[in-house]
Amino acid sequence: MPTLYVAATPIGNLEDTSARALRILREVDLILAEDTRVSKNLLSHFGIKTRIISYHQHSRVNRVDEIVRLLKQGKNLALISDAGTPGISDPGNKLVEEVVRLLGSQVKIEPIPGPSAVTAMASICGFPTDRFLFLGFPPQKRKRKQFFDEVTDSKYPVIFYESPYRILKTLRELSALDNKLSVVVGRELTKKFETVYRGNIPEVIDKIKSAPLKGEFVVVVNS
Ligand code: SAM
């Protein structure tokens, strides 16, 4: 049966690529990437020459047709995203949804698990994470207030992603709702300038403000 492998890739540190992911990426007929320019760095680092196309850019509808046609021909494909686990706050889940809808049990969909910023953060935050709520990115306009209410009302630690341009704004808005919240912010996890900030929100804002506003951020909030 043709297989669509959904393969996790590193969130920064190439050593986090699993041996299985490397083998699958070498063996499949085609790699489906979010952005081929980003993924080519990973593939060339490991000397992987498998053909790669973008499933996300250009016309998505035609791409899905093409991917479905390839799977029907019996080809094995691997889906990867720019970083981490496909489908976790990136467009990978849309493709899987379409393949399930159009091909159902004619195709095997197999995970190749590995890094994700959400699980990396859950593992180091020090809050009780046997249960937690993951909310992706805060909305920029509509439903933003609702998002923050969900964070402050949650019975469980809440993890979300944020960009370097909005991290301070988001933390300030949260702090205005409740400045006693405990927070852990992970910046550039697994990378050279990895930093983890812990404290209440005003303390963490002060620490982040004193460094250049660059990098990728993941936030955990605990009431
Ligand atoms: N699929 C990815 C995953 O499994 O984590 C997430 C994709 S989402 C488009 C990208 C966001 O994840 C970044 O904007 C950042 O908030 C978070 N992120 C990714 N890599 C990170 C890292 N090394 N350190 C901290 N946050 C990271």
What does this protein structure show overall?
With 223 residues, this protein is α/β, with parallel strands linked by helices. It has two domains: 3-112, 3-Layer(aba) Sandwich (Cobalt-precorrin-4 Transmethylase, domain 1); 117-222, Methyltransferase, Cobalt-precorrin-4 Transmethylase, Domain 2. Helix content is 37%, strand content 20%. The protein is built from eight helices and ten strands. Strand 8 (182-187) and strand 9 (195-200) form a beta hairpin. The protein is elongated. The model has no long low-confidence stretch (mean pLDDT 95). The site of S-adenosylmethionine (SAM) has 23 residues, from helix 5, strand 7 and strand 10.
Task: Describe the SSE topology.
Blueprint: E1 3-7, H1 19-27, E2 30-33, H2 36-45, E3 52-54, H3 60-72, E4 77-79, H4 92-103, E5 108-112, H5 117-124, E6 133-134, H6 144-153, E7 158-162, H7 167-177, E8 182-187, E9 195-200, H8 201-209, E10 217-222
Helix pairs in contact: 3-4, 7-8
